[in-house]
Amino acid sequence: MALLRFNPAETTIIFPPDVNSQKYTGALIQYLGIKKNRLSPQSGVASLSRGDIFLLCSDGLHGALTQNQIQKILRKNTQRSVEDAAKNLVQAALLARSTDDITAMVFEVYQ
Q1: Global pTM?
Q2: If you ran DSSP here, which 8-state letter would residue 75 be given?
Q3: Is 71 within the bounds of a domain?
Q4: 52 vs 57: CA distance, rounded Å
Q5: Which secondary-structure segment (H or E) carries 57?
Q6: pLDDT category of residue 1 using cuts at 50, 70 and 90
Q7: Angle at 23 between CA 95 and CA 67, to 5 degrees
């Protein structure tokens, strides 16, 4: 999974920092039910601004589309709704012939 933050000024990859060059791309390395002491969730604190848009997606999406393509789809569709943005991101990944499962959650900061 990857978490990306978009606003008009910049795009920030929050997790993982090396989203497209992971050693274990496509491998499930953490999950609920993993052996004791093996799960190491990552967390952090960030300031939020009105209008920030976040995308939580699987490698089926960020592996099939470039960051530039993702940005264009988000810019075009979040003016209508985050639901449209998520649907169109998945559709674009399918058109790019993604062979992995595709998950996309888009949410926007309102206050």
Answers
A1: 0.77
A2: H
A3: yes
A4: 16
A5: strand 53-57
A6: confident
A7: 40
